Amino acid sequence: MALHEDEIPVDEPIVRTLLERERPDWADRPLERAGAGTDNTMFRLGDDLLVRVPRNAYNAGMLAKERAWLPRLAPLLPLTVPEPVHHGAPSDVFPLPWAVYRWIDGAEAGPDTVDDWAAFGRDLAGFVRTLHGLDLADGTLSGYRGGLLRDAGDWVDRSFAACAGLIPGIGTLERMWRDAMLLPDPTGPRVLLHADLKPTNLLARDGALHAVIDFAGLITGHPDAEHATTWDLPAEARDAYRASLDIDDATWQRARAWAIVVGVSGVAYYRDTFPAFVAECHARLSNILATAP
């Protein structure tokens, strides 16, 4: 199902044709759909490769960002990250760039794949500490999740209005959002952010955090929004993460507000097109409500 008005459909025959044209050495490998997110559709290619095809032109630019940055980041980070191995060109078959990566063995972080959530939270904090400490800040890597809460005010207000009656406790969530906007702005330096550390981008293996994937949202900015996705995790992981990074109360409240932003806007935008993602948003917002003062 299309998620965006400007989405370009893709299927296995299209991907097979792209491979035949650019990588005939891979074209006879088994090919099967391996999931789809809000930005890309994925296909597993043989045992060791993954094809990612952007849904629209905006997300094609994100793949170019990964191609430029992942080789620089990989040797500096404590967890496995994707390795680009081929950059596909636009063509009459598919008009956007596409990409092939090494396959990473692992499964989405969840109750069936993680043995110790507190350890998971500490390992995730260690990854974030390392990423934020890298001296690679680049002013060209901008994005709203690295900015200030008040800069998102207008479209967040529209999302709250669109979700009236759809989200239990929406009044409490809106109060928490508005209270956070009254807090002092972050004063620390802008750092390199992954910007989308939700469980679908965190792969577990042997019961522990093994890999972080999907760096399409990589930006430089204030770290508040980086912490927001911990509300997708059990409380044990979230608490261990916060303790490991020694996050102060104001930063934590702003991070929670960013979690509300993504949850409410996700329900508003995808409510008729992507039920699995909407369910993730509802679960996140429920976790937030459980922490409401």
From TrEMBL:
<dbReference type="InterPro" id="IPR011009">
    <property type="entry name" value="Kinase-like_dom_sf"/>
</dbReference>
<dbReference type="InterPro" id="IPR002575">
    <property type="entry name" value="Aminoglycoside_PTrfase"/>
</dbReference>
<protein>
    <submittedName>
        <fullName>Aminoglycoside phosphotransferase (APT) family kinase protein</fullName>
    </submittedName>
</protein>
<keyword id="KW-0418">Kinase</keyword>
<dbReference type="InterPro" id="IPR051678">
    <property type="entry name" value="AGP_Transferase"/>
</dbReference>
<feature type="domain" description="Aminoglycoside phosphotransferase">
    <location>
        <begin position="32"/>
        <end position="258"/>
    </location>
</feature>
<keyword id="KW-0808">Transferase</keyword>
<dbReference type="GO" id="GO:0016301">
    <property type="term" value="F:kinase activity"/>
</dbReference>
<dbReference type="Pfam" id="PF01636">
    <property type="entry name" value="APH"/>
</dbReference>
